[in-house]
Amino acid sequence: MLTVLCIATYLKGHEFLRECHRQGCRVLLLTEEKLREADWPRESIDAFHYINREMPHADIRKGAAHLARTERVDRIVALDDFDVELGAMLREHLFVPGMGETTARAFRDKLAMRRRARSAGIPCPDFVHVLNNDTINEWTSRMPAPWVLKPRSQAAAIGIRTVQSSEDLWKIVDAFGDAHAEYLLEQFIPGDVFHVDSIAFERQVRFAVTSRYRMPPMAVAHEGGIFVTRTLAGSDPAATPLLELNARVLQSFGLVRGASHTEFIRSGDGSWYFLETSARVGGAFIVDVVEAATGVNLWREWARVEIAGEHGTYEPPAARSQCGGIVLSLARQEAPDMSAYDDPEIAVRLRKRHHAGLIVTSDSPERVDQLLEDYTRRFYVDFHASAPPPEKAMD
């Protein structure tokens, strides 16, 4: 019986935990002290262990070593983006198979992502580390504004801002103080943003779904818009280049086994650029969209490849080929009433406080587009609320 230590300092990964339990594993959960009473699938968890997110890593290593005296840990899996580096550190400390710290950095540090992509010949926006003043000035003198300023180790669009001039840039950088090295500055490339959600096993992408955002996530976060994305049909002209680029990214970044959410942008002239990747499933209910459209649950498949490990085998399940999409908005109401939305294509009604969300599926991509367009318009009237974009991850 395998023992799987799962790390989740945010409330997520329920189906991963359940699948490990179904497969006969002993399941340990390392989570935040403040989530002690959270709604975890407790029937699937054999033991809980707690940390504080700001705890020194030396103390976490000591705690993990103490745990290992009585638990033979076979797998360590980080279920959230912010736990990837912690999981890698503990694998190396306890000598557990899986992604180490050097590989993990490329899936968390946006500067490391850019450098790894550049070295692999994968097109990406031009960039500069916010470190040396002369180097920054040389870069901005040849790269026309606007630029995108990104924190290296946040997730999604958290902390990202658009900078319009050198004067604005230096005001922001000076305000960072000694934290300036935690940022990179990159070329702004307007275009359509896509994502590929994958399961990899033994360095090969074994399952992948391509999708397109209606608006770039950064625009949704900063302009208070409504989040919309939908899967692409296999015949869509964007599907093949996306799958090829995604495979190049994951192989060159060294994802041996696991899940990934990777984003790309197609510029106005049709050129493709890599934006960012991760060693986890996508957020914002993208897992639910993929399952509604294909019947494949990415959390479940991620658990299966982790359990199979370096000596096992894995075959992805047969998948449906419907098109799926989501419209998701912050809501003025605590529990929005979506009963007026009654189209038969609605597959999932999302239940989350102060959120309105629907997932639709159809054999027709055009029908999905029509529904998402209609629901977006109606959501602005019926539910929509906005909030300032967060500067750091929220609980």
How are helices and strands ordered from N to C? EHEEHEHHHEHEEHEEEHEHEEHHEEEH
Q: Note the gap between the termini.
A: 33 Å
Report the major sheet.
Answer: 8 strands, antiparallel
In terms of quaternary structure, the protein is single chain
Beta-sheet strand percentage? 25-35%
Tally of contiguous helical segments: 12
> Spatial order of the strands in the main sheet?
13-12-9-10-11-14-16-15
Strand runs, count: 16
Q: List low-pLDDT spans.
A: none
Overall average pLDDT: 94
Rg computed from alpha carbons, rounded to a whole number of angstroms:
21 Å
Based on the structure given, which CATH architecture of the largest domain is correct? 2-Layer Sandwich
Shape: globular
CATH class of the largest domain: Alpha Beta
Structural class: alpha+beta
Q: Count the domains.
A: 3
Secondary structure layout:
Layout: E1 3-8, H1 14-22, E2 26-32, E3 47-51, H2 57-68, E4 75-78, H3 84-94, H4 101-108, H5 110-119, E5 127-129, H6 133-142, E6 147-151, E7 161-163, H7 166-176, E8 183-187, E9 191-201, E10 204-213, H8 217-223, E11 227-231, H9 239-253, E12 258-267, E13 272-276, H10 286-294, H11 298-308, E14 323-330, E15 346-349, E16 355-362, H12 365-382
Parallel strand pairs: 1-2, 1-4, 2-3
Antiparallel strand pairs: 5-8, 6-7, 6-8, 9-10, 9-12, 10-11, 11-14, 12-13, 14-16, 15-16
Helix pairs in contact: 1-11, 2-3, 3-4, 4-5
